[in-house]
Amino acid sequence: MKDRWEPDHQLIESARRSQLRAESQLDSLQSTIAETRRVLEASRKLLEKIGNGRCRLGMLVGLHRTGHCGKI
User: Fold this and answer.
1) Cα 33 from Cα 26, distance rounded (Å)
2) Among 52, 53, 55, which residue's Cα sits nearest to residue 67?
3) Contact at 8 Å (CB) between 70 and 51?
4) How far does Cα 60 stand from its chain's mean position?
5) Distance from CA of residue 29 to its chain's centroid?
6) Which 8-state DSSP code applies to residue 4?
7) Half-sphere exposure of residue 15, counting CA atoms within 13 Å on the CB side?
8) pLDDT computed for residue 63 by the predictor
9) Which three-class secondary structure state does DSSP give residue 32?
10) What is the Cα–Cα distance from 46 to 37, expressed in whole angstroms?
């Protein structure tokens, strides 16, 4: 019997691999979140342009006065 504690190298290596996998998944998730934010911002801007276009079109055909302007 040993009188000193020694680390379980397999357990340590397994924990190290798990940590690397978790870090990789976190990086991937952060990248996905950033891309989602870019898409949402682009969509918001596009919807704003569509709304403004409808408003201008509505003014031409008389919808602006009826309250239908800008509704999507």
Assistant:
1) 10
2) 55
3) yes
4) 38
5) 8
6) S
7) 6
8) 55
9) helix
10) 14
What is the Cα–Cα distance from 63 to 56, expressed in whole angstroms?
Answer: 10
pLDDT digits (tens, 9 = 90+) for 27-56: 999 999 999 999 999 999 998 888 887 666
pTM of the model: 0.57
What residue ranges do the domains of the chain occupy? 10-66
User: Structure tokens of 16?
Assistant: 């190290």
Phi, psi of 62 (to 5 degrees): 90, 10
Which segments within the chain are labelled E, that is strand? Answer: none
SS3 at position 34 = helix
Rounded to a whole number, what is the largest CA-CA distance in the chain?
A: 94
| Tokens at 60, concatenated | 């031409």
| Token pair of 54 as six digits | 């409808």
Q: Which residues contact 57 (CB under 8 A, 6 or more apart)?
A: 63
- Using the 8-state DSSP alphabet, how is residue 3 labeled? S
